[in-house]
Amino acid sequence: MQERHDAPLAPLTTFRLGGPATRLVTATTDAEVIDVVREADATGTPLLVIGGGSNLVIGDKGFEGTALVIATKGFELTGTRLELAAGEVWTDAVERTVDAGLAGVECLAGIPGSAGATPIQNVGAYGQEVSSTITEVIAYDRHSGETVTLTNDDCAFSYRHSRFKEDPARYVVLRVHFDLEDAGGLSAPIKYAETARTLGVEPGDRVPLTDARTTVLKLRAGKGMVLDPDDHDTWSAGSFFTNPILTATQFAEFHTRVKHHLGEDTEPPAYPAGDGRTKTSAAWLIDKAGFTKGYGTGPARISTKHTLALTNRGNATTEDLLALAREVVAGVRDTFGITLVNEPVTVGVTL
């Protein structure tokens, strides 16, 4: 276990933003993780848990307390059952499952971060979500002081949400169990229209696993969503806002605003979200509210490849980023009556 004091946190995040931590500890075993958490709880020390740093916006003043980097390793595949240690690099894990001929997470290729973060956010993209394959999550429960096993139902997964996100100070994820599918080297049915179109198949078709993974990586790279230290369009947290899910009344009001601002012939993106609700596109809202690709003149700008990504052009501060985010939120709300919700977790700051 490594320990540093007054340690910079910016290099540990994909935004490359944020001030230092009073104390930074890197844990490489589950026992070390638990020891650090127990010590912080026993002494009343604020605790910040860091995995891959791809979903964090840390304030410029940093973090007064203990920042814990979970760097545990473990990839165990038994038949179609997969156990991942929380510190495993997610993109590497996806590649290994594809190499093993197992389907279920191939369309989640290229998503930065650690395996332990995937159930917290119910990570999803291109028609797949981890909630579809996660069977159990092993976590340290800070309330009981014990290691617990939570079933898929216990995790209370929903769109970009979970029990862990609902109560962020309670659980520290240690290991995640998945049940994948052996489809003879084929992918799970392709659900996302853009992916199917790029692959030249119909939604619901299966394709070779490697084709699905490669296609998703190309699509993500084209939107600046694959980490590249030389490309400032990837100095981001990926999608900064979640796609709004609207009730029937909210969607009707939104639809009226769209017609008013963009013309009677304009139809906004709309996807059934269950229980009479409709999901629309945050990227579309941002673009149509006037925040196009590359928007901004300061050190924090909208990506030149995708309107849903806010980026650090190299010398931004967290306050620069938040100022841009607030401008986008206000613009979309004024135009369409919808308040966007940030997807990354904020530390020491609020949007």
Summarize the structure.
This protein is an alpha+beta fold and 351 residues long.
The helix fraction, in percent, is 25-40%
Poorly predicted regions are none
Largest sheet descriptor: 5 strands, antiparallel
SSE class: alpha+beta
What order do the helices and strands come in, and which of them pair?
Elements: E1 2-8, E2 20-27, H1 30-43, E3 47-50, E4 56-58, E5 63-70, E6 75-78, E7 81-85, H2 90-99, H3 118-121, E8 124-125, E9 128-129, E10 134-141, E11 146-151, H4 163-166, E12 171-179, H5 193-199, H6 209-222, E13 245-246, H7 248-262, E14 271-272, E15 278-279, H8 282-288, E16 300-302, E17 310-312, H9 318-336, E18 345-347
Parallel strand pairs: 2-5, 3-5, 4-18
Antiparallel strand pairs: 1-2, 6-7, 7-12, 8-9, 10-11, 10-12, 13-15, 14-15, 16-17
Describe the structure.
With 351 residues, the chain is α+β, with helices and mostly antiparallel strands. Helix content is 27%, strand content 23%. It has nine helices and 18 strands. The strands form six sheets. The chain has a five-stranded antiparallel β-sheet. It has a four-stranded mixed β-sheet with strand order 1-2-5-3, covered by helices on one side. The longest helix has 19 residues, at 318-336. The radius of gyration is 20 Å and the shape is globular. The two termini are 34 Å apart. The model has no long low-confidence stretch (mean pLDDT 97).
